[in-house]
Design brief:
Strand content: 15-25%
Number of helices: 9
Shape: globular
Radius of gyration: 18 Å
Number of strands: 11
Helix content: 25-40%
Structural class: alpha/beta
Length: 241
């Protein structure tokens, strides 16, 4: 089974524009993410997909595999899907360009799901983490997920789900960690479909998959993600380096 990593890299992020080209231990953030993805040894190939000539030239100068995408994409899935039909692979893993500290253990679990899924029941897979933090549960910027008895996603929401009407229920809250692994066909189906009502309401691209009947397997992880969204995040990342 061939597995390819694709790293969507949009230059003009809303909260910290140009962050992917900012210095992190002597290298731009995006280059460090790319190199760490290669270092993981999990992938047959690693690509950066970008709308920025600065990022494109940076990866080319390093000798990396990089593709220039349209500037019109509204999600990371759309950006990587633009080229997925041209790349020979079975599984595509979407690695966030602003998360340079690759968690090999979690990514290995995602990939192994597909290796053992002989009946192709899984269309895509992602990560979730248990939380009891009320601030996270009620924060609309922290996406929550509920799953069935087999850990397939039932729904994602910015609202607290499940709603606790009675204190008698023994349920857990899970926040979504936005790392995805796709079957190639599932990603292409997403790209060739239009945004769906729930997706547009919640502004969550993963709901389009559910609305089209795709099966999303969730894996529980302790990995919390170390994304760089603000200057404080970048400062902390520099301390880790």
């Amino acid at each position: 089974m061939k597995v390819v990593a694709m790293i969507p890299a949009r230059f003009n992020s809303e909260r910290l524009p140009g962050k992917l080209m900012m210095d992190l231990g002597g290298e731009p953030v995006i280059l460090r993410t790319y190199k760490n993805a290669l270092k993981s040894k999990l992938f047959n190939e690693v690509y950066v997909i970008t709308d920025s000539k600065l990022i494109y030239d940076c990866l080319k100068d390093y000798g990396g595999q990089v593709l220039m995408s349209s500037t019109e994409h509204i999600s990371g899935s759309d950006r990587i899907a633009e080229f997925s039909s041209d790349i020979s692979t079975d599984i595509i893993v979407n690695i966030q360009g602003d998360e340079p500290f690759i968690d090999v253990n979690s990514l290995s679990k995602l990939i192994n799901l597909f290796k053992t899924d002989v009946n192709n029941n899984i269309d895509l897979a992602s990560l979730m983490q248990k939380t009891s933090d009320v601030n996270e549960i009620t924060n609309p910027n922290v996406v929550k997920v509920v799953v069935d008895s087999n850990n397939f996603a039932l729904y994602f929401s910015r609202s607290p789900i499940p709603y606790v009407r009675s204190g008698d229920g023994k349920t857990s809250f899970f926040k979504h960690i936005g790392v995805y692994a796709f079957r190639k066909k599932s990603l292409l189906d997403f790209y060739n479909s239009k945004p769906t009502p729930l997706e547009k309401t919640e502004k969550l691209e993963q709901l389009r998959y559910l609305e089209h009947g795709k099966k999303i397997m969730m894996i529980e992880t302790n990995y919390n993600g170390l994304g760089i969204d603000t200057m404080d995040d970048l400062i902390n990342a520099r301390k880790i380096i």
